[in-house]
Every structure is written in C-alpha cells, then in structure tokens.
Write a structure and sequence with these properties.
It is built from three helices and 13 strands, in the order ββββαββαββαβββββ. Strand 10 and strand 11 form a beta hairpin. Strands 1, 2, 3, 4, 5, 6, 7, 8, 9, 10, 11, 12 and 13 form a 13-stranded mixed β-sheet that branches. The chain starts with a strand and ends with a strand. With about 220 residues, it is mainly beta.
Length: about 220
C-alpha cells in the first residue's frame, strides 16, 4: 500500500496492490490493484478518482470455488474489476460534510487512532468503526520478519462496516506499526464470502513503517 499526502494541493494518493502465492492458496493465482486520488475542499466536499484491476474471479458459491481449485491454470490473464468502470477510471463526487470513499475514510480513522466515520460506496452510505489495541505478540512476529525495527510496537485494529440503510455488518482486522504518521497495514484479514477468508501480509523489504514508500501484499 502507498500513502502520500500532497499538502499544497490538498490531495491524498492511496494505492493497494496484492497477489496470491499459489503454493499457499491451494493453487489459485490472483492479483489485484486499486488506486485512489482524493482532493478535498475546505468545506468537506471534493472528488475521488479511482481505478482498479483484478484477476477474473467469478466464483459465487463454495461449489464453484472448489471447481476453480481443481482447474489447472484456469486463468492467466487479468480483467478489470466489476467495481471499476469498463476501460476507464471513475470519478466520485463526495458530499458536503466530509463523506469520502472507503480507503480515504479508513486512512483518516487510522491517523486518528480509531473512532467512527462515514463513507460512500456505489452511491450508498456506510458507517465504519475502528477499535485499536496493543498486540505484543504481533510486534515480535513482525520484527522477526523484518517488517518493523527496534522497539517499534504494533497495534491490532478491529474494524466494522455496515450500510446505513441496514444490512449485515462486516468485520475486518488490520495490524499497523505504532508511532507512524501514516500507519500502513502490516497485515490485513477479511472474509468477503462465507467460504473465503483472506489474509494479506506486507512483503519484507517494502519499508512498511515509513508511511511513504508503501507495502506490497501477498496472501
């Protein structure tokens, strides 16, 4: 993940890139990329330009997922995610009052060390809540992997999101280094479907605790 602030323009760039290792993901070979550039006005309104790619992954049920696991080299090309427009970037205008995209609001809450926020996705409003706690065991693990240095402490961030109009609450977890201005995740856990649990970890050597260079994630 990349997190850069452009103070003179009042803009922020966020990028996420990740891939699976077939030997650790039952043979599945997936890759994804998402970029967001947001520019906020003093009144809170603004625009967010975003673009994403991901390897085609049409499975919707556990049975379809099992068939995909059995297929040898099922897919080697990539196509644009359904969440991005076909062949083009998408621009979203944020409402007055500071409502932004998911990644931008998540970055805001991480910088504030938790709390509750609001974001827009696909024209619908959602609530997001983060709780943060120290995780000494994770700090030791990430030190051994070379992802944090010295006496850097690590926090576990538990997140919940729910559509304002009602619906099932979704949960995710992040681990971030303490004491950084731009806390990039060291690990991400999320279960998008009942049969699919995703865990991404930053690759060693991608400067996760600088808040500038960014991380590349593998699962």
């Amino acid at each position: 993940m990349v997190w850069r602030e452009f103070d003179a323009e009042g803009a922020r760039l966020l990028e996420f890139s990740g891939y699976s290792k077939p030997e650790r993901a039952a043979g599945l070979n997936r890759v994804g990329f998402l970029r967001e550039m947001a520019r906020m006005e003093p009144a809170g309104a603004g625009e967010c330009l975003y673009f994403g790619l991901m390897t085609a992954s049409p499975e919707e049920t556990a049975d379809e997922a099992r068939k995909a696991l059995r297929a040898a080299a099922k897919e080697s090309s990539t196509r644009r995610s359904k969440r991005a427009s076909a062949g083009a970037e998408k621009t979203v205008t944020a409402e007055a009052g500071g409502t932004q995209s998911f990644l931008q609001e998540l970055a805001n809450l991480l910088a504030r060390r938790g709390g509750e926020g609001r974001y827009l996705y696909n024209g619908r409003a959602y609530r997001i809540h983060l709780e943060r706690s120290a995780d000494g065991g994770a700090a030791k693990y990430f030190r051994e992997r070379g992802l944090v240095t010295g006496q850097t402490q690590v926090a576990r961030v538990s997140g919940r999101v729910r559509r304002e109009a009602g619906g099932r609450e979704s949960e995710f977890r992040l681990w971030v280094a303490e004491g950084t201005e731009r806390p990039l995740p060291l690990r991400i856990e999320y279960q998008p479907k009942p049969y699919l649990r995703l865990a991404f970890e930053a690759e060693a050597g991608t400067a996760p605790d600088t808040g500038r260079a960014g991380n590349v994630f593998a699962n």
